[in-house]
Amino acid sequence: MTDEAILVLEDGRSFLGRSLGYAGETFGEAVFNTAMTGYQEILTDPSYKGQLVTMTYPLIGNYGVTEEDEESEGPHVAGFVVREASGIDSNFRSTGSLHAYLERHRIVGISGVDSRALTRHLRTRGAMRGIISTTCLDEQLLLKKMSDVPQMTGLDLASAVTCKKPYPWTEGFVSPFAQSEEPEPGPKIKIAVIDFGIKRNILRCLVHEGFEPTVYPADTAAEEILGSDARGVFLSNGPGDPEPVTYGIETVSKLLGELPIFGICLGHQILALAFGGRVPKLKFGHRGANHPVKNLETGRVEITSQNHGFCVDAATLDDSEVEITHINLNDDTVEGLRHKQLPAFSVQYHPESSPGPQDSRYLFKKFREQIEN
Amino acid sequence: MPKRTDLEKILIIGSGPIVIGQSCEFDYSGTQACKSLRQEGYEVVLVNSNPATIMTDPEMAPRTYIEPVTPEAVAKVIAAERPDALLPTLGGQTGLNTAVALAQSGVLDTYGVEMIGATLSVIQKAEARDQFKTAMGNIGLNVPASGVAHDLNEAHKVLEKVGLPCVIRPSFTLGGAGGGIAYNVDEFDAIVSHGISLSMTTEVLVEASVLGWKEYELEVMRDRADNVVIICSIENLDPMGVHTGDSITVAPAQTLSDKEYQVMRNAAIAVIREIGVETGGSNIQFAINPRNGEMIVIEMNPRVSRSSALASKATGFPIAKIAAKLAVGMTLDEIDNDITRETPACFEPAIDYCVVKTPRFAFEKFPGTDTTLMTQMKSVGETMSIGRTFKEALQKSIRSLEVGRFGLGYDGKDLWRSGAMPATDEIRKRLITPGAERLYYLRYAMLAGMDLDEIHDLTRIDKWFLHNIREIVRFESDLAGHNTLAALPTKTLLEAKRMGFSDRQIATALSCDEEAVRNRRKAEGVVPTYKLVDTCAAEFEAYTPYYYSTYETEDEARVSDRKKIMILGGGPNRIGQGIEFDYCCVHAAMALRELGYETIMVNSNPETVSTDYDTSDLLFFEPLTLEDVLAICDRMQPAGVIVQFGGQTPLNLAKGLRDAGVKIIGTSVDSIDRAEDRKKFKTLLNKLGLVQPDNDTATTVEQAIQIADQIGYPVVVRPSYVLGGRAMEIVSDQTSLERYMKVAVDVSPEHPILIDKFLEDAIEIDVDAVSDGNTVVVGGIMEHIEEAGIHSGDSCCVMPGYTISDALVRRIRECTHALAIELNVEGLMNIQFAIRNDVIYVLEVNPRASRTVPFVSKAIGVPLAKVAAKVMAGLSLEDIGLTEEVEMRQYAVKVPVFPFSKLPGSDIILGPEMKSTGEVMGIDNNFGLAFAKAQLAARQKIPTCGTVFISVRDMDKREIIFIAKSLQNLGFTIIATHGTAKVLERNGVIVETVRKIHEGRPSVSDLMRNGSISLIINTPSGREAREDEKKIRSLSVSLDIPCLTTLSAASAFVTAVEALGRSGYSVKALQDYHPEPVLKPKKTEATAGQ
Q1: Which of A70, A265, A268, A286 is catalytic?
Q2: What Rg do the C-alpha atoms of chain A give, in angstroms?
Q3: Which of B45, B89, B106, B1065 qualifies as a cystine partner to B303, CB 3.0-4.6 A?
Q4: What is the dihedral of CA B598, B601, B602, B608, to 10 degrees?
């Protein structure tokens, strides 16, 4: 791990550090996440597809990695940036070190970076493209390559992370640390889950709440779902810009009013697009585990886990049809929507957490109630 | 929900004196609460007996009572003020217990006072052990197997269930007082009995031990709308078994995965809801079994705590301030986050650095006490440091401690490769038994070749911490491998700094001096960068300028064009240096801000008001070492630095700073040196025609004997250049002198010892004065109640003097003027005088803020530290409006508070070495009542009837007669030991003789244990106090029987008993003692150097 590495951003700012994980070169959109725990969940969240994720908490890797904490079949980040990667993994659940994990999964990372300076840069200039390299430390050369790095806006990344064919999901919480409450005892409810890059914990939460999910690829036609015995549709999280996911928007538009719908994150944005709204890019996004969201129906504040670079523009929604149910208290952005006439609601943040607080698990129950009523 | 409008007046109870387990963090929280409630338009009434607090400044609340924090006194305040509500959660355990007592006795109901923040039932549910256990069961959380006991029988029944070793925790006590770990039945019986006697409810919890489990704390806040947020997680480096106040702690938690952390977070939220803390902050402690993650709840504090102060400083989130607003009904989403301004306080801080808190101990002052760390807190202070890595923060924390260490090793105090290098057995022992030095032994163990598994087995410290410490240790040998500074590559130098190595360590490793390292660094641009503590990991713009140093690529310090003055704080609290100096620093910041300067505060103590982010314009949370302070000076370029307010810590830096070209404002470094250097001081006194006790300096044992003979016994002996009276003794003959030289100090030409004539039976006087170089104004002349020979910090004193003549007072004033002018003092000055046979001796002159400045300031109604700071900025005393000494119309008494009950085994006898941790003030128009109030505030019982046990040394036998007679007249029964009884009987006192302990039984100790003695007067018969006396005194501590060890204290005590018996006491607000502002300023702008 003593080999040098460099991170170069498209505006020419660069950071020197050491190679972490796989040696090589990688590119993507540089973003930061302020969660202090949960790096493995972040690495394996498909929503980070195409991104160079910077952890603002400087000490990463302390408790190692374990298969239990995987949010998908492996890491999806394009690259990983930390201040200090722990030389030891100290936790009874750990099965290996972060470094070895990244190496095994061919994830190029960089440690020793002044990640606070990088975060401030991204905060003021906005998320931007970057390259991490351990093979070439020449900034100018790397900057020249930058034009080959695709822009996040307009890119359909969901198609890259969705499943290839439908499959049933039956597993609830396997880890005793995941949930303290007992699973919902009522009858099982069959639902269709459209996978735009789903996190396993959403599926576990759904199972825990008494659902029997079948996961469908992102480009599944509405007719296929309507032809199944699903009593509801769940729209999953996923990476990047929702607008290029035209097939998803089309499917959701057709399902709207036919079956109860619940969407999270990208699923929420796709629902908003189906409602006729717009979803522009945020300057640097929301990524972390401490965002206060106010539930406008109850007045209560939930501390939430977030990960999104795009956000629904409230002004583009027709308020005779759509109601804003949740807002972010930090910047007043839209965090939750509900259709006033049809059974469809969604949240921008992550009630399944993993990582992050579990204040908002009630939403899964709400979905169940919506279907049962 | 908006704030409540049905409340107007709110009473806040402070925590009283600084004691182990309850330090200045409650001044920090109380001060924040006062500010915060006033901001919302409420009228605050404040009660606190500790004059050295910012919260008792008359500007902080419209009604300030410096009165005992006891149910009785607070009831009087309630009767006088008729507050609508009482906020009990900001004054520590003392404030909480007082509130509980007031609620239980019906006082709150009688006067219609509502408890806000936490109600009586909530407090009981959280604090009463069995109720807490049931509550945890209700929400499915585990607590250690345990049972409550009220006597030994009950305790043994519980023991059968939990087994040994087990933990004993008394209910409703502070800092784990009276608790402990029992490994065998004898220990068990002893701890249980002691614990029951200390508990307010005579109740202890006997609990299965989870020694070696990982320990965590979460700081939780909840509002009236049931929004709950976690402010900070803290992980203890020392596992379960060491009190969290004595543990090295780290924020945030380091070794929990998100899954485990969320389980703990959910549990914390469930706990605060179940206990029912409606609004405010709580602290919840957890233990985790490192083998399988099993979690148990250890305890909960339904109030702000030491940990919440730490969490506030660690995250930038002002817990107490927000708690106060929540208590009046506001909700978290209605309150702005001061730091980011745009985002609300309803969130969970994200931090992007590592925080390490390290406790500071003072065992060297209490020989005989058990230094093992366990469930009863023993540390007297703490430091906090911030770094981008644990390694950096840990090393910064060590050098913040003011124990002469500059890092983990290679710092000049390192035992490795020295003559005192510990052997492997010794290392093992020190790893198994936690003590103040265990951290250093972890390093020795690694150097001795022990692997992490072995060290972990011995200590149960998580391997993540051990691994990081090993990285420091490994790097240190790489560093030393370069042999010379010139051979050290810049890259390695930078790496060393990034790991927190101080210049001193690098210099030691490479055998060069610190300055050479500094010069090399600066030449190559290896300098610290300053980063912001912003609650949000840079996600939002932050406005509060709260900085820490680290070696990174980007510096965020915002340097304005304004003229800056830097104030150096006092570092960790310890005996001899506590809250008084922080008070002075805070005042300096306030005064200089008033004058329009930009103020920069540098300090490392998280408990303080000075490290609140809005006390000064810029806050640097940094170690107070030359390296760290110079680096800030380089970056910020202050026009001046104030070193005379933070006690000895910044004063020690004065010369180095000046030599490096930093401008020290106020009294010059040379003047300080003239007062401190014995030779120069002697010349100075001669020049002014003042006298001091005969003295000389010895460099050999023979010389010392010769000097002592010449001066005449008794003499005061001490090593040169020590602080707080460390290793200072009064010896009365050659044998004692020889013993002292053999046991206490090594005398040599490099380490001379100072020998002074001891003035027996002299009256000691403390003077605080302020001078601008032309005008000198005496702030206060304090007469010590105990005679000379007892450290001024440990003696009771009264102001104005109560036995000295006007002529002497005049003469003292003249001496003070002469000394201030001669030393060209600009700012504060403290002088200690002794008077014997009408001769005034000058014992000591300190041209700096003293421990008594806050006491004097409150007694006369003039903020002396503020005045002094303005003088240092160039204003004259005339400009400020203070040219005359303030005449006092009331008596103010200062009484020290000691930690003996927390450090069992140490002798309570007072001497030249300071032992008190804090002090209280009593103020009244009548001396006896002022003294009585101060005693009550110090939690000293004042019996008004009962039996007094008297045993005095021969030389006191004449004087005791009068005291005994007075006590008899007051209705006390007198018992005495044989010798004393004889004298008393002969003089017409009715007295019963009682056996000394060694004379057989029943002895005085039996009477004490049976509760038939309510007061003890016992003067010590010499340095080698007889075992008997020591036993009586330590028994009096554990049985909480007032024990007076000097006749002067005894006679003052009698006056107090008399006064109390006559009329009782009443309470009066500080604002009523000083209805008019004393200062009448002419100028409010700075003139110096503008």
Answers
A1: A265
A2: 20
A3: B89
A4: -170
**In this complex, is the C-beta atom of A283 within 8 Å of any C-beta atom belonging to chain B?**
no
What residues contact B745, with CB distance under 8 A and at least 6 apart? Answer: B719, B727, B751, B753
Cβ count near B705 (within 10 Å): 16
Q: Are B854 and B651 in contact (CB under 8 A)?
A: no
Nearest to B370 by CA among B1040, B1034, B1041: B1034
Distance set, CA A131 to CA A80, A138, A140 (Å): 11, 11, 12
Give exposure, B264-295, as e/b (b: 16+ Cβ within 10 Å): bbbbbbbbbebbbbbbbbbbbbbbbebeebeb
- Residues A129-134, mean pLDDT to the nearest whole number: 97
The CA-atom distances, in angstroms, between B980 and each of B324, B958, B994 are 56, 10, 10
| Nearest CA distance, B444 vs chain A (angstrom) | 21
Q: Is the dihedral of CA A171, A71, A303, B348 positive or negative?
A: positive
A63 contacts chain B (CB < 8 A): yes
Q: Report pLDDT for B963.
A: 95
CB within 8 Å: A56 and B537:
yes
Determine whether the interchain pair B538/A123 forms a contact, defined as Cβ–Cβ distance below 8 Å. Answer: yes
CA distance B407 to B502: 7
For the stretch A164-190, pLDDT in tens is 999 999 999 877 776 667 888 889 999
Q: Is A34 on the interface with B (CB under 8 A)?
A: yes
A355 touches chain B (CB under 8 A): yes
pLDDT in tens, B1007-1029: 998 889 999 999 887 654 567 78
Q: Which of B229, B467, B554 sits opposite A87 (nearest CB)?
A: B467
Predicted confidence at residue B1089, as pLDDT, reads: 40
Q: Give yes or no for a contact between B488 and B479, defined as CB atoms under 8 angstroms apart.
A: yes
In this complex, which of A15, A66, A357 lies closest to B262 when CB atoms are compared?
A357
Q: What is the mean pLDDT of chain A?
A: 95
CA A97 to chain centre: 23
Q: What percent of chain A lies above the pLDDT cut of 70?
A: 99
Predicted pLDDT at B890: 95
The string of DSSP letters for B156-192 reads HHHHHHH-SSEEEEETT-STTTT-EEESSHHHHHHHH
**Interatomic CA distance for residues A181 and A174, integer angstroms:** 13
Interface ipTM above 0.90: yes
Q: Contact B317/B221 with Cβ under 8 angstroms?
A: no
- The torsion of the CA quartet B369, B370, B374, B376, rounded to 10 degrees, works out to -20
Is this prediction's pTM over 0.90?
yes
Is residue A350 among the annotated active site residues?
A: yes
Annotation marks residue A265 as catalytic: yes
Residue A335, H or E segment: strand A334-339
Predicted local distance difference test score (pLDDT) of residue B172 = 72
Residues of chain B under the 50 pLDDT cut: 1024, 1087-1090
Report how far residue A269's alpha carbon sits from residue B507's, in angstroms, rounded to the nearest whole number. 59
| Chain A residues with CB-CB distance to B351 below 8 A | 36, 57
